[in-house]
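Hi there,

I know you've been waiting on this one. I reran it after we fixed the sequence typo, so this is the corrected version. Both the input and the resulting structure follow.
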Amino acid sequence: MNAATRPADSMPNIHRATHLEGIRYEIRGPLARRALELERQGYEIIKLNIGNPAQFGFRTPEAMRLAMIENLRDAEGYCHQKGIFPAREAIATDATARGIRGVTVEDVFMGNGVSELILMTLEALLNRDDEVLVPAPDYPLWTAAVSLAGGKPVHYPCRPDAAFIPDPAEIERMVTPRTRALVMINPNNPTGAVYPPEVVEGLVRVAERHGLVLMSDEIYDRVLYDGAVHTPAATLCEKTLCATYAGLSKVYRACGQRVGWTLFSGRREHARDYLEGLEVLASLRLCSNVPGQWAVQTALGGHQSILDLTAESGRLGRQRRALVSAIERSPYLKVQVPMGALYAFPSVDLQRVKDFDDARFAMELLEREHVLIVPGSSFNVAYRHHLRLTLLPDEDTMVEVVKRMDRLLARWVG
């Protein structure tokens, strides 16, 4: 009997590749799948698991939509593997205006969102068992991407009792001969922390002293609250290669367009072979989404409407305040006030709620209260009493979510 005639029940199992072992992305994991099942049964689920502005009625600025429509005729074919010239020129010009020196269009790689570029830049860099310093908590794609590229993620702590701000001196003690890169996520997802300039400079100096590639994820660079100021790492980095990741998804509410970019700055002569390897990977996928790239120049050069939204009187500003105020009134929850990005990372008072487990609570919150959140342990931390919520729902919904969380926590307390 050959394989073509073998009975179905005797077919060997098809297993996932071994390099996927341990890879997690709980933001779209079992909880999200269970939420979909409940929706199909007719339940209305409040979803706070993904930073997807369109889901909550946020629109891409009209001028950007028009720019894409008007250039559709020029978006039907492949473009250069690094991206279209007007988009890359606009990014380089914006970088120069923000104090990043010596950048040109040749230093910019366009990608299908920052996610693709994280995967590509690490794949081009890492050999088996090379180490990358990644924050904990982190955006879990970073940890997964290091592992998929054959490397070893080494997590440096961003402790709750330090407002989730990392300590550069502690990080430097974690550098080994195998360390190739240092990842910074600022403003931070999931915590909402915005790093002070001296901390950014401290991380830059660690990378420079050890010849590490500094990988600075700044996708939320303009999503700031209460006068918080973001310091681009590239403005301080000159003696090593710096890769800055940004895009249209969050600041410009254009997630579905899948437009991200990596801007390389700092010292680049010694990294020529690496950058050529990255261009090979960019060529293999032909190019990134072309229609969305036509919105980049308009986005960066136009009115920054995100500032209206994040102002105290703006929609995001009001929703953030509503969530923080509701948590402050809670007998069970507390939160480090997020100063940037689209998330809060509240914790449960373990003195009040004994034996708390974030994953079990999140599933029960979904089943009983029809609220979908993400357990904090999904972000590569050992503690299990934090939860991540988006700031995107309206004010009344934010208050209602905390009310439902408190109701369930009261049941746990008994």
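Quick highlight: The chain has two domains: 19-58+308-413, 62-301.

Best,
R. S.
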